[in-house]
């Protein structure tokens, strides 16, 4: 099945001379959840805005479901729903009216049954007659999602969808995203919350300085790049790592009662057996051994630091 979004050599340079995107190449598969991670100013919002037709690219091409975003802009825009980062809503508009109006902007005929189900799915049905000014920040963000989905798009862009909301509401939003994905909607989100990408994304892209540093299946990424830590707890309290163990690049904790060893599970040689023998030869008594896998956050930080 062909990709739903194809980006080839996309560049964007603003009038100030700032190059926000540098030859971005990206393929987004139909029905997937793609998380785009990157520090402030990395180019995430510019990339989304370009695909959605809000920013004109300097060069390169973008196709949405086979249609060019410039030549076939009417076709591509009807396929896309965008939830912006900013909460831009009319204070006195009512929930039902603003969602219905958004649907009309795309030339869609009224469909009260669809709007009703959409509001119920987003836990907004009991707020349908409320003025937007009376809603909480989290509820307003749900309204933005309803507006973006009002015309039944194939693709939904979420720009920092859970920025400024509490942890409980963030998890509710994750459920909404998964439900939308199950219904066949392709979802692309930008986020600063690493755990958000780790929780809901199928693939993860890392952007820095306008370039895509990496694009990989989440689990494959963690297996390929994730290191493991082995924490060796000992009964003795050490002031320093014994000379016989220096070659293993161990870290000694503040209490002097635990050694940390980093290793790659995919490497041909992990060095664990040799290390444990060396610990025994050094006269240290093992109390416990624990291993942990590095998180997506560890990988992200390392990628961005390496690009600086």
UniProtKB/TrEMBL annotation:
Domain ABC transporter: 5-234
Any GO MF annotation of the entry: ATP hydrolysis activity
CDD domains reported in the protein's UniProt record: ABC_DR_subfamily_A (cd03230)
InterPro entries: AAA+_ATPase (IPR003593), ABC_transporter-like_ATP-bd (IPR003439), ABC_transporter-like_CS (IPR017871), ABC_transporter_ATP-binding (IPR050763), P-loop_NTPase (IPR027417)
Keywords: ATP-binding, Nucleotide-binding, Transport
Organism superkingdom: Bacteria
Stored PANTHER family: ABC TRANSPORTER ATP-BINDING PROTEIN
Identification of the protein by name: Multidrug ABC transporter ATP-binding protein
Organism encoding this protein: Leucothrix arctica
Lineage: Bacteria, Pseudomonadati, Pseudomonadota, Gammaproteobacteria, Thiotrichales
């Amino acid at each position: 099945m062909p990709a739903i979004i194809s980006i080839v050599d996309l560049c964007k340079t603003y009038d100030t001379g700032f190059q926000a995107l540098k030859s971005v190449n990206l393929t987004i598969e139909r029905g997937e959840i793609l998380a785009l991670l990157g520090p402030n100013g990395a180019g995430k919002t510019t990339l989304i805005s370009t695909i959605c037709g809000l920013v004109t690219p300097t060069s390169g091409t973008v196709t949405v479901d086979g249609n060019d975003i410039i030549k076939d802009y009417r076709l591509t825009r009807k396929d896309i729903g965008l939830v912006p980062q900013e909460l831009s809503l009319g204070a006195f508009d009512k929930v039902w009216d603003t969602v219905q109006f958004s649907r009309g902007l795309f030339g869609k005929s009224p469909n009260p049954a669809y709007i009703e189900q959409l509001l119920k799915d987003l836990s907004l049905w009991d707020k349908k007659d409320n003025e937007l000014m009376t809603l909480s920040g989290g509820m307003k963000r749900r309204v933005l999602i309803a507006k973006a989905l009002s015309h039944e798009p194939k693709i939904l862009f979420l720009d920092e969808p859970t920025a400024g909301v509490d942890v409980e509401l963030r998890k509710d939003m994750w459920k909404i995203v998964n439900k939308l994905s199950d219904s066949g909607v392709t979802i692309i989100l930008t986020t600063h919350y690493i755990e958000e990408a780790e929780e809901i994304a199928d693939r993860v892209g890392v952007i820095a300085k306008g370039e895509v540093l990496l694009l990989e299946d989440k689990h494959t990424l963690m297996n390929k790049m994730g290191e493991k830590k082995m924490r060796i707890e000992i009964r003795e309290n050490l002031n320093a790592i014994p000379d016989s163990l220096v070659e293993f690049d161990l870290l000694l904790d503040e209490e002097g009662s635990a050694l940390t060893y980093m290793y790659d599970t995919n490497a041909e040689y992990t060095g664990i057996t040799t290390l444990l023998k060396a610990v025994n030869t050094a006269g240290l008594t093992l109390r416990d051994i624990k291993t942990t896998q590095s998180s997506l956050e560890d990988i992200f930080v390392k990628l961005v630091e390496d690009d600086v």
